[in-house]
Specification:
It contains five helices and 15 strands. It is α+β, with helices and mostly antiparallel strands. It has a single domain, classed as outer membrane lipoprotein receptor (LolB), chain A, CATH 2.50.20.10. It has a 15-stranded mixed beta sheet that branches. Helix 1 runs parallel beside helix 4.
Length: 278
């Protein structure tokens, strides 16, 4: 399979890794920046936006949601082309705060692992027996996916990057439905809008723009559905990705666990590919 497919698969999967992702280079709990985080201006947030995010935290589980420190999940990733879904690829994902993630893919001719630890990481392609470091472009993609995560917004880690949070208003979301909308704006010009169901307070969408290979700004959107209570935390078991208004992928989770032990060895780059097991 072409390498470009691998990279597209990895980006789409990492970008929608549950709601419980972290942001490289932003604050850990207590306001302490992660290693390598640049000094930024003081963040700003209006009261209405903070009220929307506080309600979302409660809707997702309150103390149970806030208490999540690691996540192990599995399910299936499906790419869409011209409205048709391809062959699902199974994945298993390990996440440890603040910025470590390992995703393993199997199926449809794919066998690979990608590990991100902040701005660094590595990729192993089992079919070609190839182990490489993530490129600067891949690290930037990971950072974008983390910036647009619900967890980054609700846990306030955007503050360490000097971002501003404002309330946008209510937006149509279907027949007799409205979403509350807030916007995160970063000093480098990047912005992301987060929509929450006005009735329940649950996350509904994330919208932002991302530059494609031709240098054009393309609208990206994630939609969350089928929330299931897992250990007191409400988790979206279906996450759809749209690019320029057309569906490009779907993630279906079939198992999610919180705060289980995750060995540090899973994230360390191996010196011998024969030791990589998945």
């Amino acid at each position: 399979m072409r390498k470009t497919f691998f990279l597209a698969l990895l980006y789409a999967s990492l970008a929608v890794s549950l709601l419980f992702t972290t942001t490289p280079g932003v604050a850990q709990e207590g306001g302490k920046p992660a290693s390598g985080a640049p000094k930024t201006s003081a963040p700003k947030a209006d009261e209405k936006a903070l009220a929307v995010t506080a309600r979302a935290v409660e809707a997702l589980g309150g103390p149970a949601y806030v208490g999540v420190r690691s996540t192990i999940s599995q399910g299936y990733f499906t790419q869409f082309r011209e409205g048709l879904g391809g062959i699902p690829v199974s994945f298993r994902d390990y996440m440890v705060y603040p910025d470590r993630e390992r995703t393993e893919f199997k199926g449809a001719g794919v066998r690979m692992v990608q590990v991100n630890t902040g701005a660094t990481g590595w990729i192993f392609e089992a079919n070609g027996k190839k182990l490489t470091d993530v490129t600067p472009e891949q690290a930037a993609d990971f950072r974008t996916s983390m910036r647009t995560s619900i967890d980054n917004l609700l846990r306030g880690w955007w503050r360490a990057e000097g971002a501003s949070l404002v309330y946008v208003g209510r937006r149509e979301a279907g027949l007799a439905r409205r979403n509350e909308v807030v916007r995160l704006s970063y000093p480098d010009g990047f912005e992301a809008e987060f929509e929450f169901d006005a009735r329940e307070g649950l996350p509904s969408k994330v919208l932002y723009k991302r530059r494609n290979a031709e240098g054009e700004q393309v609208e990206e959107e994630f939609r969350y559905a089928q929330f299931i209570n897992v250990e007191g935390v409400r988790v979206p078991y279906i996450i759809d990705h749209y690019r320029a208004g057309v569906q490009s992928s779907r993630v279906n989770y079939d198992r999610v666990e919180f705060n289980r032990p995750v060995p540090d060895s899973l994230f360390a780059k191996p010196s011998d590919i024969r030791t990589i097991k998945f």
